[in-house]
Amino acid sequence: MIRRAICLFVVGAVSLGLTARSSAQDKLDKEAVLKKAIEASGGAEAVKKYPAAREKTKGTIEINELEVAFTSESVYLNPDKMKTIVNVEFMGQKVKMVQVVNGDKMRMVANGMEMPVDEANKGELKESLILHQIGQLTPLLEDKAFEVTLLPEKAKVADSEAYVVLIKAKGLKDTKIYIDTKTYLVTKMEKRGLNTEQKEGNQEYFLSDYKKVDGVMMPMKSKVLHDGAKFMESTTTELKLLDKVEKSEFDISD
């Protein structure tokens, strides 16, 4: 169970701020806020050019109150394909986990051993794919599958003020994204999710250290809290945005 949970969470991986009511001159509608956020990310043309990416990360995750280091390599292709390889060493045991999602088909293997994926974890995997789409922002304006609401109150993320956008979609637990009122970059995402003990709680993904990659601003660091407690930190060490990926990479057969 621990192996499965580590892989599921790393795939899906980013304190609730105090809110303050916005003044009249600060009010913008959701379309205006999202358009500014897309422009800050590099513009719709640049963002939509890359439906896929290949990434390497390193970081730590909390397992049974222990901080465990991991490395991962992943590739995804929106809207429904993803492959992730995670390497960890836990209590003297090295574990290599490979996880593939190809539409409704999913597979997970740990040290060569097939791991079952139950319905709850299938839901988490599907949500992680939807989060990739949300991260691009453009689908929030163009895809009617997303119900988007700009909440009337702003929030504090670290020392900065942020617009709060609530997103609803089929197969996705209600998700909030926080858009900085000055930079218009997404600094936080928030939703319900599972931890390594398979317990559901409130998860806050803090995104930082933005760098321009292939013309698109991308966060290089993330920190995750689960019910307010530190859960995971990660740093992207390599990232390449792609306009296509061979579908054979997501083959789930032996």
UniProtKB/TrEMBL annotation:
<protein>
    <recommendedName>
        <fullName>Outer membrane lipoprotein-sorting protein</fullName>
    </recommendedName>
</protein>
